[in-house]
Design goal:
Length: about 375
Amino acid sequence: MLVLGARPQFIKSAPLIKELSAHKRITLDIIHSGQHYDTEMSRIFFRELKIPDPKLNLRVGSGSHAQQTAAIMRRLEGTMKEANPDIVLVPGDTNTTLAAALTASKLALPVGHVEAGLRSGDSTMPEEINRKLTDHCSAILFAPTDTALRNLRREGLAELTYMTGDTMVDSLRLALPFVKRAERAVLEVFGLRPRNYLLVTLHRPSNVDDLARLRETYNALTEVGRKLRVMFPVHPRTAKAFASLTRMTHSKDSGLTLIGPRGYIENLSLLKNASCLLTDSGGMQKEAFLLHVPCVTFRSTTEWPETLAGGANRLLTNPKMLPEAILAVSGDDGLRDDIAGLRNPFGNGHSSRKIVDIIRKTLQ
Ligand code: UD1
């Protein structure tokens, strides 16, 4: 059984699902928690990544952390009991991940955590709590990087851990031919030229729930917009916060283009051709690194410290410092070449196969 429910989980699970489905002796039940439910946040990824329809959608929707986590657990328990799977796979660090891991482990079903061992060191992040608790109630841990492996060793979990690399590299490898075909048209739609715009994604509570901070960030982005086009696909959480900034009047001439969340291929097309990425997403820091795009991460910590090598990624929390930091790396072709020369610490794009092989051997 594979339990997923939020955007990054659809992306990182797609190659794993493909690999699992290729084995005749494996029966796969996909359960969608319904944590993300819009076409833009969920359905488009099932379509684009050819993920089979889930066996069941728990339709939990949004709510506080406790409500969301508890609702998933309550709705999942009966399903797990009835299906009695040999293993329950949980990818990533969302509330869905933790809820599924807890439910399974309390039913004495073995849990396999895909993307285990990540630590930002910031326990105010809901995802950090989800990561730690999920790792500590899992039976098999699939570590995406050497850093993750070391973290798990330090926490006494070495015996359960396998170093597999990151399935998001698999997803990227499978998507790149489609990106190559789509990118020109994507840029044309928005009137963009390659390496001539900043791409922004922000959705962490620490950045978007504090409206004064969000306003400062918005002002910093309009300052960047005077020199460089800014493309900002807005996450629903951020859109809600923007909407409540009642006095925030967005001008179309600000150089800042606000659009809805994009699908995977369109998002990668925008990222690949950007001169810089400003983000607080974990996955996008890595994708920028792999596509050699300089990145500024609007956080004080990262669970992907490998991306900081050679100045490829820089951590920053003060909105006032954003314009200078972004403009310093945008259009720096030397930096791009340096990033291209760095070792890829995230695996060779065949992590899903490794994970499936380990599962098959363990369950034999
Ligand atoms: C969640 C994950 C985060 C992941 C992110 C990717 C947790 C704790 N956080 O954060 O790790 O990086 O997803 O997007 O699990 N909403 C919609 N439509 C949707 C989905 C959500 O409008 O399809 C709204 C919800 O009503 C809610 C807000 O967006 O108000 C946030 O959704 P939520 O699932 O709570 O967490 P994310 O911030 O998306």
